[in-house]
């Protein structure tokens, strides 16, 4: 999933575990997304 935000030159790259994206990773991504 790629999300772009206007006038923002920062990025966070999330590498998931071998078994895929788990609930913890989803929650952390939501927290970072909400904080901008």
Automatic annotation (TrEMBL):
Listed name of the protein: Uncharacterized protein
Organism annotation: Salmonella enterica
